Amino acid sequence: MENTARAILRYAHLSPYKARQVINLIRGKDIATALAILSQIPKKSARVVEKVLKSAIANAEFKGMDIDNLYISKIHAEEGPMLKRYTPKAHGRATMIRRRFSHIYVYLAEKQQEDK
User: Residue 80 maps to which CATH number?
Assistant: First the structure.
């Protein structure tokens, strides 16, 4: 992909399932609309995704891209490593607690200008 900007957050302390709930709402939108949507969602994952999106916008500005003409071309969350802990239960048993991490990827691109 030429002329794109990206930002990656690795080892975010939230599960990929919860991150994808927010990510699916902003996929393909322009950045002003995406930031407006993220500011209205009352979830921790919305704050994390908003921070990554702002980082991608700063990277695009550094590369000299037109900020008003950007949209989210690709965004996804992948599963990171899992911390496994055990908690005691009744009758000498133990159950596993899985603390999930996720990697969040945001790619921005410029809209193509149509010549008339």
Answer: 3.90.470.10
- Measured over all CA atoms, what is the biggest interatomic distance in the chain, rounded to whole angstroms? 76
Q: Is residue 39 part of a domain?
A: yes
Q: Does the pLDDT value for residue 45 go beyond 70?
A: yes
pLDDT tens per residue, range 51-107 = 999 999 999 999 999 999 999 999 999 999 999 999 999 999 999 999 999 999 999
Q: Any residues with CB less than 8 A from the CB of 5 and at least 6 apart, and which?
A: 56, 57, 59, 60, 63, 65, 70, 107, 108, 109
Handedness of CA 52, 58, 60, 63 (dihedral sign): negative
The tally of domains found in the chain comes to 1
20 in a domain, yes or no? yes
**Structural domain for 48, as ranges:** 7-110
**Do residues 78 and 103 touch, judged by C-beta distance below 8 A?**
yes
